[in-house]
């Protein structure tokens, strides 16, 4: 799969997307009021009072000493929340934070402490009460796609701490995430997907972590019927990282992931009226991954078409998803995968050609109107692949 195609697969979650688990709480204080325009940002009391000097001093103290006093904790929290909220909506805030070299460098050093040594996080120790504020600060840098932090964030998501924390959720029943879980399993991988447009870092992560991902996902599968929204939010990212890497894998490495993805699709893919959120993201990305695997591996395609004892169950699920799933991106992928598994005449018999073509054309036009050329190309590839024209 090309870099553009890989980007399309991930970025199509813009429509399947962004129900991120957000730990940011609303504070109704005057200082943390919302920023609606550039003038408000430059005149805001938090900026004038604390930024960047005091926040840099606090981060340096946290880095050297590992603890903060109560006043420092409050200032850290106030500044981090302010930057997180303002960089979501305000262009001057984005420009300002992107120019704060000292703040970025200190943030990078703190990330290294987490990825290399597990400081601040609740793995084998007590979770630092300031980690939540740091999580908001990292999300603020994600809002401006700060690439300087990518290397240390990759260190966090490829660390033994990441593996331990994800494995701790393997019973599938978690209804909420701790700050440590959110930081390692949501904030850091989400940052990478946002900033790593050419998928260079995603591929490196998948290369290093593939065996760990297989073991971790296997640990989750026995409890798949219990998977909660929180758990699926975390599992989405390993699957997505593998998607960027799967075309370069040999059969021996594709096959274990192929088996895992089949189990996921067979057990989580009932049609749902909720068109967004973690469930849709997991199903959509799993469909993309299975399509990529069978397109680039004739052995797997042959196995699924002619030898698999789950083909009939999978086709039934794909039929339901293509006709009753409200999310059109999932519908398209279900149709595309079905076309790979059925002879052309049987596919035409089971699927209304006019409806299928119309669905693809509708999504192609929407992608063009939104300026998403990679997505438009991917829709066209899907339409060409099913050969119904």
Describe the structure.
This protein is mainly α. The protein is built from 22 helices and no strands. The protein has helices at 3-11, 13-16, 38-43, 45-50, 53-65, 70-89, 91-98, 101-117, 131-143, 150-157, 160-167, 179-195, 200-220, 229-243, 251-268, 278-296, 298-307, 311-324, 328-341, 344-350, 353-369, 373-386. Helix 15 (251-268) runs antiparallel to helix 16 (278-296). It is globular and about 70 Å long.
Radius of gyration: 22 Å
Main beta-sheet strand count, sense and barrel state: none
What is the beta-strand fraction?
A: under 5%
What's the shape? globular
Summarize the structure.
This protein has helices at residues 3-11, 13-16, 38-43, 45-50, 53-65, 70-89, 91-98, 101-117, 131-143, 150-157, 160-167, 179-195, 200-220, 229-243, 251-268, 278-296, 298-307, 311-324, 328-341, 344-350, 353-369, 373-386. It is mainly α.
SSE inventory with pairings:
Blueprint: H1 3-11, H2 13-16, H3 38-43, H4 45-50, H5 53-65, H6 70-89, H7 91-98, H8 101-117, H9 131-143, H10 150-157, H11 160-167, H12 179-195, H13 200-220, H14 229-243, H15 251-268, H16 278-296, H17 298-307, H18 311-324, H19 328-341, H20 344-350, H21 353-369, H22 373-386
Index terms:
22 helices; 0% strand; 389 residues; single chain
């Amino acid at each position: 799969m090309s870099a553009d195609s890989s980007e399309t697969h991930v970025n199509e979650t813009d429509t399947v997307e962004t129900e991120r688990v957000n730990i940011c709480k609303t504070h109704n204080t005057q200082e943390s009021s919302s920023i609606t325009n550039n003038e408000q940002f430059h005149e805001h009391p938090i900026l004038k009072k604390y930024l960047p000097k005091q926040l840099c001093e606090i981060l340096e103290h946290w880095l050297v000493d590992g603890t903060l006093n109560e006043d420092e904790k409050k200032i850290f929290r106030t500044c981090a929340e302010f930057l997180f909220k303002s960089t979501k909506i305000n262009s001057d805030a984005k420009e300002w934070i992107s120019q704060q070299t000292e703040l970025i460098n200190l943030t990078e050093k703190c990330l290294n402490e987490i990825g290399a040594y597990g400081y601040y996080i609740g793995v084998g120790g007590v979770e630092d009460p300031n980690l939540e504020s740091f999580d908001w600060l990292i999300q603020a840098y994600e809002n401006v796609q700060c690439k300087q932090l990518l290397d240390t964030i990759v260190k966090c998501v490829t660390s033994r701490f990441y593996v331990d924390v994800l494995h701790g959720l393997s019973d599938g029943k978690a209804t909420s995430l701790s700050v440590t879980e959110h930081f390692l399993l949501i904030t850091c991988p989400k940052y990478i997907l946002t900033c790593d447009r050419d998928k260079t870092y995603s591929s490196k992560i998948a290369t290093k972590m593939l065996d760990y991902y297989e073991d971790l996902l296997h640990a989750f599968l026995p409890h798949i019927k219990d998977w909660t929204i929180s758990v699926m939010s975390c599992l989405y990212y390993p699957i997505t990282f593998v998607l960027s890497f799967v075309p370069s894998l040999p059969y021996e490495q594709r096959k274990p992931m192929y088996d895992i993805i089949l189990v996921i699709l067979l057990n989580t893919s009932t049609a749902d009226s909720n068109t967004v959120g973690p469930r849709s993201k997991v199903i959509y990305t799993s469909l993309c991954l299975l399509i990529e695997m069978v397109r680039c591996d004739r052995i797997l395609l042959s196995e699924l078409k002619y030898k698999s004892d789950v083909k009939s169950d999978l086709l039934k699920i794909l039929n339901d998803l293509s006709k009753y799933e409200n999310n059109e991106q999932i519908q398209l992928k279900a149709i595309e995968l079905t076309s790979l598994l059925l002879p052309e005449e049987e596919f035409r018999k089971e699927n209304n050609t006019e409806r299928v073509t119309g669905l693809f054309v509708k999504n192609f036009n929407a992608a063009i109107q939104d300026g998403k050329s990679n997505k438009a190309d991917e829709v066209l590839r899907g339409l060409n692949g099913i050969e119904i024209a």
